[in-house]
Amino acid sequence: MTITIQELKTICENEFDWNMIFGAVNDAYSDDGFKSNADNFIRAKVLELSVVSFSELIHIDQDGVDFLLMVDGEEVLIECKFLKGFFKKDGTCKEVKMKNYRGDVSEEAFNRFKTENKFHYVMIVDRNCYKVALASKDTAQKYYESKGDGVMSQMPYNELTILDLDVDNFTFPCSDVKLSELIYQTIIYWIKNRR
Predict the structure, then answer these.
(1) pTM of structure
(2) Is there a contact between 113 and 145 (Cβ–Cβ < 8 Å)?
(3) Cys-Cys link to 66, which of 80, 120, 144, 156 (CB 3.0-4.6 A)?
(4) Are the C-beta atoms of 105 and 32 separated by less than 8 Å?
């Protein structure tokens, strides 16, 4: 049986270095070398890989599940959503895009998404206020709604498990090296040295 959400909360609070994670995220999002929408992919990768780098999560990046956490020989599958402003000032939460239809907006596709078992928990990381929420698959799927090109979930705040992070004592370590410059130089090096 999968670990409880409280057990996952304890692991996330005690075994993840959120100070380092949010430090890397801040660096990526304050990098003025990332100017276009195309750079959003790179920043999204920084988010994912920051969590992996400062936790025991394994990045599996499969359709419907981002991370694997091994707990006492058991696989815990986590879908992660990185958002800005998920926690609204009025005490509610923004809706989360859980699935992309990729062209198939049929009722069959929606019903398939509503019952699939690809992840055990969803982790929502709000990079704006440095808060992290957890919800079970059942909670996320309970609020699935078909909207436009995807499936959204508007989970109530009181049904989320919020990590207790000591944000007031975070130092948000940063780098003197701009990631955008490093990536640019790496691409140019690769282009020139393909032999």
Answers:
(1) 0.89
(2) no
(3) 80
(4) no
Alpha helices, DSSP H, located in 136-177: 137-142
User: Residue 113: which H helix or E strand, with range?
Assistant: helix 107-115
Rounded to an integer, the average pLDDT of 44-63 is 92
On whether the CB atoms of residues 85 and 91 are closer than 8 A, the answer is no
First to last CA, the chain: 51
Q: What is the pLDDT of residues 6-32, one digit of tens each?
A: 999 999 999 999 999 999 999 999 999
Residue linked to tokens 């992290």: 132
The two counts, helices (H) then strands (E), for the chain are 6, 9
* Tokens 């009181």, located at residue: 158
CA distance 108 to 151: 13
- The whole-angstrom separation of Cα 130 and Cα 132 is 7
Residue 163: what residue type? L
Domains of the chain and CATH, by start: 5-192 (3.40.210)
CA 151 to chain centre: 17
Q: Would you give the distance in Å from CA 11 to the centre of its chain?
A: 16
* Cα dist from 101 to 42, 80, 116, 125, 146, whole Å: 23, 18, 14, 23, 9
